[in-house]
Every structure is written in structure tokens, then in C-alpha cells.
Amino acid sequence: MFYRSLFTNAFTACALFSGEIALADSFNISNDDSSAYSLINSLGEPLNAGNAILGTFSSGTWSYDVTTSRWNFQGNSYAQDQLKYSDLMSMQNNFTSALTNIPEEQNGGVADGRFNLSGDYSSSLTSPVYLMVTGQDGETALFVFKDVSSDSLLNYDNIDISGTETFDLWLTTKEQALTNELDYYTECILGNINLQNNTIQLLIPEPATATMSLLGLTALMVRRKRK
Predict the structure, then answer these.
(1) Keywords on this record (predicted)?
(2) For 194, how many CA atoms within 13 A lie in the half-sphere containing its CB?
(3) 38 neighbors 115 (Cβ within 8 angstroms)
(4) Which of 17, 79, 97, 98 is deepest in the core (most CB within 10 A)?
């Protein structure tokens, strides 16, 4: 049994998908619990605005290898610290919502480092369950969920619920998952985790910051040349 959130609720419905009726199950993800991670930006400040999206990568694009903890794209393999700004933008562009009952921009709003999202997903999905959180300045964190007993990735086709049962997931550590009798815990696969204060720091500086840095460097070079 999954831990029942006192802060969240979800509902079950059928969705019209690809011209046919596709089964849909109720899915709920939250970090509102006191033991869950808090989201902060690259400056260490609580994330005040942004989006949380439950989804998947477009077919044939980015994927994550849970065994090697590396990203794969077009035959190439990358560690997190090897990803360029353009790679991270490519991830965002190839990430699509898996929820079928609400518009993508309403999946989940971020406020004060916390969020909540719920909805129905198509049961035809077989890819890993990814969660993307983006800040208002373009910063990003990405998560997968792992089985407490086997450490294997949670895939959409692993989820077998019916009726009005809710599938709840928390942004939480393995130890907290065991304490709260959760079946799955969170692994941040893009972002920096601080276990001491239970925060996740999003990555990707906003483009304006990088642009200003380049302009500043150019100005210094011009000034030095004139001297």
C-alpha cells in the first residue's frame, strides 16, 4: 500500500487518446510532505515559481541509464557534469507531458519550493516515469522513481491500479520511503541534492546571465586593448 497524502487528492477518469478510448489511472506526485525535498534555485533560494510536469521523453530522444547513471542521446553517453546548456535545452524540448486530463501548463505550479500535481495518464505508456521541474529562469531538475527493494526504475507499465485507487509518489529519500512505508523513492538525475538540509538545487543558469557574463568579458577585453 502506498502512503496516503493528507495534502493531496486525485481522481480517475477515461481519456480520449489517438482516436480511441485509452484506460487512465490516477497519478499523484507531491513534495508537500514535511519529509520531502524542498526545491531551490541555483543561488540557493527557495523556488518561487515554475512548473512541475509528469511526462516522458519523445521516442528516440533522451534517455537515462539507471545502471551507469548516464544520459544517452543519439548514440552518445553523457555524465551530468558533461551536459552543455544546449543539451539541457534539448532535454526540455523533447520532454512531453504524460497526463491526459489537464493542459500541460497546469500540471503543477511551483511556489516556495513546493508543488503538487495530479492527473490521469495513458496506460499505453511503457517508458520510465520522469518528473521535470523548471524554474521561472529556465533552471531545471529531473527525477526518476526507484523501487525501494530492487532499486529498479519505475515504469508506467509497472503501475497496476484500478478503480478509484490513487498512486502517490513523494520527492523523498530511500530512508524516508522506508520509514513512511513507501514502495518508491526519488532519485534526482539532473540537479544537486543536499541531504543535510533536504533540498534539491536546480541546474541551468538563465540565458540572460550567460549573456551578461560574455558582454562583461568582452567589455574588459576591449578596455584592455585600448590601454
Answers:
(1) Signal
(2) 12
(3) no
(4) 98
Which pLDDT tens digit goes with each residue over 209-219? Answer: 444 444 555 55
Instruction: Give yes or no for a contact between 85 and 73, defined as CB atoms under 8 angstroms apart.
Output: no
CA distance 39 to 141: 9
Torsion over CA: 92, 139, 72, 184 (sign): negative
Within a 10 A sphere around the Cβ of 223, how many other Cβ atoms?
Answer: 9
H-type helices in 131-181, by residue range? 174-179
Domain ranges of the chain: 15-226
What's the pLDDT at 57? Answer: 92
- Residue 51 β-bridge partners: 109, 134
Model confidence band, residue 138 (pLDDT cutoffs 50, 70, 90):
confident
Predicted TM-score (pTM) of the model is 0.77
Check residue 127 and report its DSSP letter: S
Between these two residues, 68 and 118, which has the higher pLDDT value? 68
Q: Within its chain, how far is the Cα of 135 from the centroid?
A: 11
How many CB atoms are closer than 10 A to CB 175?
A: 12
**Contact predicate 59/23, CB 8 Å:** no
